[in-house]
Design brief:
By secondary structure, the protein is of the alpha/beta class. It is 22% helix and 38% strand. The protein has two domains: 331 residues; 50 residues, no CATH class. Helix 1 packs across helix 6 and helix 7 crosses helix 8. The longest helix is centred in the last third of the chain and has 17 residues. The chain starts with 8 loop residues before the first helix and ends with a helix.
């Protein structure tokens, strides 16, 4: 007989505070969604031992992320959450030997007392209505604790299959001093899923001289809202590399990661936004950079049809810090809109901050040349789009470079 462990008292207290804050009704609300229209509980799904045993709709969702059946078999560390259920949590013995722990956050709060020091410590649950709602109803997410170095990617996938559902995963990543891992997070939903929302909270702790490589793949259909809430605390001498691929922003995507960068730390964040529907995408990175740190925030946006994309990257420098923001936009429709709002702030004469932004359309001369060489209009456009994305794509691992290309091909270009 399996004995189910109840949540510890401190988790119950957070849930109670979340419910009380929602009842109070004074927190800032999201202007695009009404939380009362969503449900936070769903039917329990039976756990599986192997990914190939997953329901066909789950396997189809993986295809939307570009992962073939053969590629799925090669994943060493993987968790799969469907709606509010952790369907699969699979950790190879290789990871265990490297002192890397992976578990569902719902189970981790019961097993690992130290998680109390990290849960809702970077992101306050009284920040706004969304964080209070998350505190009251969260389910699942991934707890990753690394105390060594491991090169192969650790994979976490969040799939939304139910309409009118609020997926509220809470992910905590802790890298002990001098450790290194690569985390790949994939988020998607089948096209028929209607009027659901993903509100994931991510708290990432990168301790002294550690290195975190984070790859995010998002492919949301046009009826899903997504609100990832991320805070990263990077201590002295750390390296944080982030590659964020947004291939379809759903009904709306509002993403505002916050990074606290310690002394002599480095962050390199690259975002590719590929919007081909009526999405509203608002992405804003906020980095506070301390002495002798280095920040690079790069974004490339491709907007078609009636999509509206806003990129607001911010660097605040303290002491002798270096920072650069670069925003490039490519408009493929007369009705699409891209807004770039880079922001730099410093009270230190020793800081070195810069930014650049450029928005335009496909080069007419290049299109004409490619068509004169026998390519169709669509083939010529696709080739130029791939060239626009190429600098960022080259920095992805080969496996995930192929995945992104597959997704774009499935979309049939713009």
């Amino acid at each position: 007989m399996v004995i189910k462990m109840s949540e510890p008292k401190w988790v119950e207290h957070i849930r109670e505070r979340g419910r009380a804050l929602l009842k109070n009704g004074r927190l800032k609300k999201d202007e695009y969604i009404n939380l009362k229209t969503f449900k936070s509980k769903n039917e329990t799904m039976k756990k599986i031992e192997r990914l190939e045993d997953a329901p066909k709709e789950v396997l189809a969702a993986f295809e939307r992320l570009g992962l073939s059946r053969e590629e799925q078999k090669r994943l060493l560390g993987i968790t799969v959450q469907v709606d509010g259920n952790m369907l699969l949590s699979q950790v190879s013995k290789i990871l265990e030997k490297k002192n890397v722990t992976i578990d569902s956050t719902s189970e981790a709060v019961k097993k690992y007392p130290e998680i109390k020091n990290y849960f809702f410590k970077l992101v306050p649950y009284d920040l706004n209505e969304l964080t209070a709602y998350h505190a009251a109803h969260w389910s699942g997410g991934v707890y990753i604790h690394a105390n060594g170095k491991f090169q192969s990617p650790i994979n976490a996938y969040f799939l939304l299959l139910s309409p009118l559902f609020s997926q509220l995963e809470h992910t905590i990543v802790v890298l002990e001093p001098n450790s290194e891992i690569t985390v790949v997070e994939g988020c998607t939903a089948p096209i028929p899923v209607r009027n659901s929302i993903h509100v994931g909270i991510n708290e990432l702790y990168v301790k002294k001289n550690a290195r975190l490589n984070l790859i995010k793949l998002q492919n949301w259909p046009s009826y899903v809202h997504t609100r990832p809430i991320t805070k990263i605390k990077a201590e002295k001498g750390t390296h944080v590399n982030i590659t964020n691929i947004i291939l379809g922003g759903g009904a709306s995507t509002i993403e505002t990661p916050i990074v606290e960068l310690g002394e002599e730390a480095k962050i390199n964040s690259e975002t590719l936004i590929f919007s081909d529907n009526n999405s509203l995408i608002n992405v804003a990175s906020y980095v506070t950079a301390y002495r002798d740190s280095s920040t690079v925030l790069l974004s490339k946006t491709i907007a078609g049809k009636n999509s509206k994309v806003i990129v607001r990257d911010n660097i605040t420098a303290e002491g002798k810090a270096k920072g650069h923001i670069s925003c490039d936009g490519l408009l493929l429709s007369k009705n699409a809109q891209i807004t770039s709002v880079p922001s730099l702030s410093s009270h230190s004469p020793d800081a070195n901050l810069s930014h650049e932004a450029a928005i335009g359309k496909l080069n007419e001369e290049s299109l004409f040349y490619l068509r004169s060489r026998g390519l169709s209009e669509k083939q010529a456009e696709t080739l130029l789009i791939e060239g626009f994305m190429s600098p960022l794509m080259k920095k992805l691992p080969i496996l995930y470079r192929q995945e992104v290309k597959k997704i774009i091909e499935l979309k049939g270009g713009m």
